[in-house]
Backbone:
């Protein structure tokens, strides 16, 4: 057990280190970063002074050593544009992003699981077919296109919802839908198939024969057993949701992490972009690690494959 | 199973095998194939089928709505954009770019992923470890972010975009192919091949690869729809296809400023993206069912 956990943790750390290195190398091979930073027509002396000030005159190995040391020490660099630590910039934007992720997740679970259950229980009815068609559409329509279509209808045509910002609850409606649509669709689909699997099991027939009420049967016996695959799907979708949120935040001018990353890309603000990519990678790696370890606790067979 | 042989005359009247196969496909899916064919044809013949030059500006007829609305201008079926360009013609040319990019990216990732997956599964050992380590890393980062990083570093060129699309989803093929090869490697027909002295490459390409074809085809439909989405998102952010060339995504992105006054500029390409994504996914779903492929999602 301990061995499995330490191997998995070591692999996760190794993955993060490789990503750190790749990001470093990638930002250095792109030619002179300094050219993006200085205004055109800067005289050679000032340029040389700036190169020295930023430490870009040292050897690449030396730069890498400094970079890793500073990273481990919790210094992640200064934004080229704002001249303040990148972690501070992201920290300010963490709240709105977390709120958006959380509301998308809640939407997917609170709406998705009941819809999936209904689709499983009432299968072959018009209602179930309607739900599954909607789920397919939610799955097929790209997030940012959905965002644009929602904007066109609810902001510009009907004028019901605000089109940008994160000030009031009304601001949350469209971004939550746009970020959560694919996850919602996935939850509906997997809840349905997972419930169908469980509902045909013998122990449910036994429970029904014993006279367990249909309500208790579905919620206590079936749903509980269907839960594991559903949670797995949500775990697997984390990467997709984070990726989608980056674009959606830009569409709705949401003051979150994703909008900052896109802004950093457009401005070529490497320290900011680098920290954003590494931060998201760290989150995904940690989530996957946690899921793996949880599985190995729940189901000992997983460990053998290690 | 009857063994009656039809006479020649009878055989002539019978529908051909292809036609029979076509009729076995459900009606909805047949419709999808027709729409897909129509879209590909329109994209391939864009210069001939689009009513106007997509880049021709006519500043006197800017922001005209589609036919049927007030102020519409004859000849401009879907209206004009902020520079007086024909939205329909731009959509058709944008479709060419979007589909072309997705096809290029899909081909690159298919080749790369299948090759590395075969290598990983067949050779095993350190090669396998190394390739799977790269796969792990690729899974760890949301690819949208990798794409942003690459674009920030290498700039916004068509070559860069093709590179990004090519490396975006190779690991999906690699994982599937590797798993299949691992399962096939110890089956009797492969061992028999090895026993009669068949070369590795012959075994791999003539005997193992054909058995991996179905899951690859199914995965390809998923990858293509993902690539369409990725290209559209990047172009939408202004980090993909650069003007004056337009893809469907960049049309949506550039039309955003006019959403209040001229929603059709954005709605037309957005709905076209939805149509393309729907058709590809429906065909993919059907393929998965009919080829009986179980993919671990």
Residues:
């Amino acid at each position: 057990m301990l061995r499995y956990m330490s191997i998995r943790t070591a692999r996760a750390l190794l993955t993060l280190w490789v990503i750190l290195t790749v990001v470093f190398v990638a930002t250095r091979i792109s030619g002179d970063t300094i050219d993006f930073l200085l205004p055109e027509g800067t005289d050679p002396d000032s340029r040389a002074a700036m190169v020295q000030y930023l430490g870009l005159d040292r050897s690449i190995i030396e730069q890498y050593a400094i970079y890793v040391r500073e990273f481990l020490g919790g210094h992640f660099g200064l934004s080229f544009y704002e001249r303040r630590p990148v972690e501070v910039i992201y920290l300010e934007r963490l709240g709105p992003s977390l709120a958006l992720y959380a509301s998308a997740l809640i939407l997917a679970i609170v709406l998705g699981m009941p819809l999936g259950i209904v689709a499983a229980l009432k299968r072959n009815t018009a209602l179930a077919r309607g739900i599954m068609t909607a789920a397919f559409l939610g799955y097929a329509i790209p997030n940012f296109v959905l965002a644009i279509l929602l904007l066109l209808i609810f902001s510009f045509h009907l004028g019901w919802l605000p089109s940008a910002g994160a000030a009031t609850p009304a601001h949350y409606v469209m971004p939550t839908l746009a970020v959560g649509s694919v996850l919602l669709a996935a939850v509906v689909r997997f809840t349905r198939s997972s419930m169908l699997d469980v509902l045909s099991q013998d122990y449910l027939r036994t429970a029904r024969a014993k006279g367990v009420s249909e309500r208790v049967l579905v919620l206590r016996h079936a749903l509980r057993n269907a839960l594991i695959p559903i949670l797995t799907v949500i775990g697997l979708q984390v990467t997709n949701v984070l990726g989608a949120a980056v674009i959606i935040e830009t569409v709705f001018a949401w003051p979150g992490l994703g909008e900052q990353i896109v802004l950093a890309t457009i401005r070529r603000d490497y320290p900011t972009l680098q920290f954003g990519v590494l931060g998201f990678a760290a989150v995904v790696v940690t989530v996957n690690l946690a899921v793996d370890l949880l599985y190995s606790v729940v189901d000992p067979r997983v460990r053998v494959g290690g | 199973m009857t063994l009656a042989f039809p006479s020649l005359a009878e055989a002539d009247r019978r529908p051909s095998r292809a036609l029979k196969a076509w009729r076995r496909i459900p009606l909805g899916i047949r419709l999808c194939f027709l729409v897909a064919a129509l879209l590909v044809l329109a994209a391939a013949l864009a210069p001939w089928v689009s009513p106007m030059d997509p880049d021709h500006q006519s500043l006197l007829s800017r922001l005209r709505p589609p036919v049927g609305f007030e102020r519409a201008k004859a000849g401009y079926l879907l209206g004009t954009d902020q520079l007086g360009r024909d939205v329909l013609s731009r959509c058709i040319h944008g479709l060419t770019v979007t589909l072309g990019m997705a096809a290029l990216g899909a081909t690159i990732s298919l080749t790369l992923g299948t090759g590395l997956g075969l290598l990983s599964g067949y050779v095993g050992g350190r090669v396998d470890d190394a390739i799977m380590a790269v796969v792990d890393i690729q899974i760890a980062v949301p690819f949208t972010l990798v794409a942003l990083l690459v674009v920030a570093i290498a700039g916004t060129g068509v070559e860069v975009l093709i590179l990004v699309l090519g490396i975006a989803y190779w690991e999906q093929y690699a994982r599937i192919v590797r798993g299949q090869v691992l399962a096939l490697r110890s089956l009797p027909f492969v061992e028999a091949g090895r026993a009669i002295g068949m070369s590795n490459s012959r075994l791999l390409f003539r005997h193992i690869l054909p058995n991996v074809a179905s899951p690859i085809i199914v995965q390809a439909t998923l990858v293509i729809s993902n690539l369409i989405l990725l290209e559209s998102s990047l172009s939408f952010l202004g980090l993909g296809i650069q003007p004056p060339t337009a893809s469907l995504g960049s049309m949506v992105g550039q039309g955003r400023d006019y959403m209040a006054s001229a929603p059709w500029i954005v709605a037309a390409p957005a709905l076209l993206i939805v149509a393309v994504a729907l058709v590809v996914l429906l065909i993919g779903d059907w393929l998965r069912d009919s080829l009986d492929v179980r993919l671990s999602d």
